[in-house]
């Protein structure tokens, strides 16, 4: 039986508060993404003005969290380098294409930038996913990074809930407060409408522990979001609704 072509599931959103300005484009199925459009908050797509954040490069510049291939477009800049790195790993291994930029109040700390970035990404996930039909629904994965090993289990349930165990040894991951990994993923689960469990099972290096967690989450997302041929329009629930 030949496969039926399905269009990429995409979303383009903006989230603007007094604390952060965020713009992102997401494709759950990868593929090319246009550059983020100019807006009042981001008046020039080539602007180097990043407001309260550190200097924001052009979207066409190669940065620490950019990767453009035939199957994926990834370009991320929040002003928090370790956050960018985790979002890059998440998008890459989930098979997403993601363009994201944020101007945040980093003169205070990284809290609002991180929280609002995850909230915006959760909103985009929900919008891109669309009707919760024809999906695998459940996803689970283990991912190692050298000595670290993490497990992620995801249910596209429309019942937001998050449990995470990370046990970082240091209070900071680069310039990212380690507490914000838990808070950020909880914020994403809320707006994504998913039940999510992420556990770091072992590991000595905090960078490895965090990155293995995001990679496990990525693979779980890819599994849960898979469209099942022959199940189009069907809801994977005994209730008949998600």
Following the backbone from N to C, one meets helices and strands in this order, namely EEEEHEHEEEEEHEH
Sheet/helix structural class: alpha+beta
Spatial gap, N to C terminus? 29 Å
Residues in helices, as a percent range: 25-40%
Shape estimate: globular
Task: Give an account of the 3D structure.
The chain has 242 residues and is of the alpha+beta class. 27% of the residues lie in helices and 26% in strands. The protein has 4 helices and 11 strands; from the N terminus they run ββββαβαβββββαβα. The strands form 3 sheets. The chain has a 5-stranded mixed β-sheet with strand order 1-2-5-4-3, with helices on one face. β1 and β2 form a beta hairpin. α1 (81-94) runs parallel beside α4 and α2 (111-129) runs parallel beside α3.
List the helices and strands and how they pair.
Layout: E1 10-16, E2 20-27, E3 66-68, E4 73-77, H1 81-94, E5 97-104, H2 111-129, E6 138-145, E7 148-155, E8 161-165, E9 172-173, E10 176-177, H3 179-192, E11 195-202, H4 206-224
Parallel strand pairs: 4-5, 8-11
Antiparallel strand pairs: 1-2, 2-5, 3-4, 6-7, 7-11, 9-10
Helix pairs in contact: 1-4, 2-3
Short description:
The chain is 27% helix and 26% strand. With 242 residues, the protein is α+β, with helices and mostly antiparallel strands.
Name some characteristics of this structure.
242 residues, alpha+beta, five-stranded mixed β-sheet, 4 helices, globular
């Amino acid at each position: 039986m030949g496969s039926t072509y399905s269009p990429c599931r995409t979303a383009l959103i903006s989230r603007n508060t007094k604390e952060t300005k965020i713009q992102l484009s997401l494709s759950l199925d990868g593929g090319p993404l246009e550059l983020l459009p100019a807006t009042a908050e981001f008046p020039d797509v080539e602007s180097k003005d990043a407001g309260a954040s550190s200097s924001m490069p052009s979207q066409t510049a190669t940065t620490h969290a950019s990767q453009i291939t035939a199957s994926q477009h990834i370009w991320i800049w929040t002003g928090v380098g370790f956050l960018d790195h985790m979002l890059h790993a998440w998008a890459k291994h989930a098979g997403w294409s993601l363009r994201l930029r944020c101007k945040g109040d980093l003169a205070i700390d990284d809290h609002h930038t991180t929280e609002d970035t995850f909230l915006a990404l959760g909103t985009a996930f929900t919008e891109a996913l669309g009707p919760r039909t024809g999906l695998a629904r459940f996803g689970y994965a283990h991912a190692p990074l050298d000595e670290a090993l993490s497990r992620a289990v995801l249910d596209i349930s429309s019942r937001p809930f998050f449990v995470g165990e990370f046990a970082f040894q240091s209070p900071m991951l680069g310039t990212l407060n380690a507490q914000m990994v838990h808070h950020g993923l909880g914020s994403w689960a809320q707006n994504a409408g998913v039940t999510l469990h992420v556990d770091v099972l072992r590991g000595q290096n905090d960078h490895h522990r965090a990155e293995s967690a995001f990679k496990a989450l990525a693979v779980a997302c890819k599994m849960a979001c898979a469209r099942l041929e022959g199940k189009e329009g069907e809801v994977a629930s005994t209730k008949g609704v998600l």
